[in-house]
Amino acid sequence: FIAVGAVLFLVRSHDGPMKILPGGPFQAGERVTAPDDWSFLTDHATLEMQTMAPPRSRTMWLAVYDNRLFVISGYMTSRVGKIWKQWPLQITENNLAIVRTNERLYELQLIRRHEGAFIEGVLELFNQKYGQSLSTDSIDSGNAWLFELTRR
Predict the structure, then answer these.
(1) In terms of DSSP bridges, do strands 104-113 and 30-32 run parallel, antiparallel, or are they unpaired?
(2) What's the rounded Cα separation, in Å, for the pair 57 and 152?
(3) How far is CA 99 from CA 3, 13, 52, 63, 119, in A?
(4) pLDDT tens by residue, 69-95
């Protein structure tokens, strides 16, 4: 238990996440203006995202739909999800984030999306890309939280 605790403490001071382990705030990267078109990330499997309160980073799955950038948090109503998935709840208090990809830092905000004609298309991209079975029922039930990343 001591070794696991030490590892978790150390990764929180690391520049960004370490695979599935959350990391500390970003230290490296060039700050640039967020683009209107995120299609350059379409083929990326993951991106790194740092929340501001608390300042922690994690590796996220992503979908680019109609040039818009989305991330998702599943298992929100499961026992494990209620313990492991704290960042979506923290976003309700402070929705500012930084995304790091290709050595660039983008200051963004996360907007939780519950409805819209685009949601089915976004979920289909997540399903194809990651072998999931997400549906609008997942969003409606609160088991999956869908966020769009937009300029601040």
Answers:
(1) parallel
(2) 18
(3) 30, 17, 11, 14, 22
(4) 999 999 999 888 777 789 999 999 999
Please, what's the b/e burial string for 125-141 (b: 16 or more CB within 10 A of its CB; e: otherwise)?
A: bbeebeebebbeebbee
Cβ atoms of 24 and 13 within 8 Å: the answer is yes
Please state, as a whole number, how many other Cβ atoms lie within 10 Å of the Cβ of residue 29. Answer: 18
Tell me if the bond preceding 35 is cis, omega within 30° of 0: no
List helix spans (H) across the chain. 2-11, 79-84, 87-91, 119-130, 136-141
* Strand, helix or coil for residue 34: coil
